[in-house]
Amino acid sequence: MRIIRSRTELAEQVAQWRKAGETIGTVPTMGSLHNGHLTLVNALDGKATRRIVTIFVNPIQFNNAADFQLYPRGLEADAALLEATGKVDVLYAPDETEMYPQGFSTRIMVSGLDSMLCGADRPGHFDGVATVVTKLLLQTGADVAAFGEKDYQQLCLIRRLVRDLDLPVSITPVPTVREADGLALSSRNRRLTPQQREQAVHLPEALKTCLANMQSGKTVADCLKICRESLKNHGFNVHYLELRTGDTLQETHTPTSGARLFVAASLGDIRLIDNMPVV
Q1: Is 30 annotated for ligand binding?
Q2: Residues of the chain below pLDDT 70
Q3: Which residues constitute the catalytic centre (predicted)?
Q4: Residue 18 marked as a ligand binder
Q5: Distance between CA atoms of residues 79 and 178, nearest Å
Q6: What is the pLDDT of residues 71-120, one digit of tens each?
Q7: Domain tally for the chain?
């Protein structure tokens, strides 16, 4: 596995692969890798002959400077984890000046999908996501890219921008990977104190209970109210808890198949998100 830090070197490698008729799969990440990321790498089995994992903590998607500074980083450990898979050809880890050279002034906005859920809670976040993902897909020459369903709104947004901008890349969705107790894997979990980690498991439990209540005949409004109170009683600050359609992410009050329950809630200053489908 090669570690590449510059756009020029990456372009040279991609050109060599293209000349040889290779296809390229990309997994964009912000590092601090875990088994969820490795599942994204494995999801490219049979879909590409070469694999690139990118690691870049993207400053323009953080609307909180402290959150950006505290985001966990560990390139050496990440590289070792990827090397051990035997599947990754290149780890692309540019620095901020490589991604955003002096004078960089462009932002990509995906109207509509950027202003709900996490977009309403974190102004400008998805403009930053759309911009960096577009750059990474172009820089890596991706034919296919894998994204996790834990960040389901992000997945929908990336699908839309790929379609709207006619980017020649196929997006592969990958189901959420969870700990044994149900907590969705996230790099932010490493910042939880032991007490917060015990509290955190209530997030997926509350979503499961809420969905079960909906399917038992209770109104969506009542189920969301009960779930929100339960989360608050377990120490969460609830940013949003909403039932949305699974394709356009429009708010719905009907728990039909394909709809999804979305939540963002904080323990202290650590913001956790999750979502589960109505089945």
Answers
A1: yes
A2: none
A3: 37 (proton donor)
A4: no
A5: 22
A6: 999 999 999 999 999 999 999 999 999 999 999 999 999 999 999 999 99
A7: 2
Write the DSSP assignment of the chain as a string of letters: -EEE--HHHHHHHHHHHHHTT--EEEEEE-S---HHHHHHHHTTTTT-SEEEEEE---GGG-S-HHHHHHS---HHHHHHHHHHHT--SEEE---HHHHS-TT-------TTTTSSTHHHHSTTHHHHHHHHHHHHHHHHT-SEEEEEGGGHHHHHHHHHHHHHTT-S-EEEEEPPPB-TTSPBP-GGGGG--HHHHHHHTHHHHHHHHHHHHHHTT--HHHHHHHHHHHHHHTT-EEEEEEEE-TTT--B-SS--TT-EEEEEEEETTEEEEEEEE--
70 annotated ligand binder: no
Is residue 207 located within the same domain as residue 266?
Answer: yes
186 is in an annotated binding site: yes
34 annotated as belonging to a binding site for a ligand: yes
Predicted confidence at residue 63, as pLDDT, reads 87
Same domain membership, residue 159 and residue 214:
no
What pLDDT was estimated at residue 244? 98
- Look up the pTM and report it: 0.95
Looking at the structure, do residues 167 and 201 belong to the same domain, yes or no? Answer: no
* 207 annotated among ligand-binding-site residues: no
The answer to whether residue 184 is domain-embedded is: no
- Whether 47 and 137 map to the same domain: the answer is yes
253 annotated active-site: no
